[in-house]
Amino acid sequence: MDENCSRWGNKFGFMILPVYYHNTKDADPLKFVKRAKVMIDRKKQSLGAHFSYYAGKFTMSLLGPKAASMSNHKILCNTTFVISNIVGTQEESTFAGNPMTYITATTTSLPTAVMMHMVSYAGKASMQISVAKEIIPDPRFLAQCFQDALLEMKTAAQPATVDDVC
């Protein structure tokens, strides 16, 4: 294989973030988004995610795929909520001449209580939630809460129109 070719495969690291619950009706929803953004930007600038990636790569090369898989499984066993965010193309794509209506990502059999995948494609966002039924008995209610929160943030983020100001 040519040395200059691009590499295939997934590359990922872990960022551990605290999740806070606030039961306030009149709070600005963007306040929480801005706070999370600051926290995530700090984590991105730290070496934590890079270290976890290289530790996984080192484990894979030194001990093999079985040990790397066990290590990832142990990390996920101690994680409650996993979020995956994939940014897709802005324009619609085709596959073998057929238009793609949406793109989705999924992971199964993970030992986490909640897994949420967000994928944006052609100006639309799709959300997929996987839950452990023993822990989350009503996943539709949880999905509705996520949807309401996202719509509330979107509404708060839209600039005020002239009619709103006057």
From TrEMBL:
What cellular-component terms does GO give this entry? plasma membrane
Gene Ontology BP term (one)? triglyceride biosynthetic process
Molecular-function GO term, any one: O-acyltransferase activity
Listed InterPro entries: O-acyltransferase_WSD1-like, O-acyltransferase_WSD1_C
Tell me where in this chain the O-acyltransferase WSD1 C-terminal domain is found.
Answer: 8-154
| Name of this protein | O-acyltransferase WSD1 C-terminal domain-containing protein
Please report the organism this UniProt entry assigns to the protein: Beta vulgaris subsp. vulgaris (Beet)
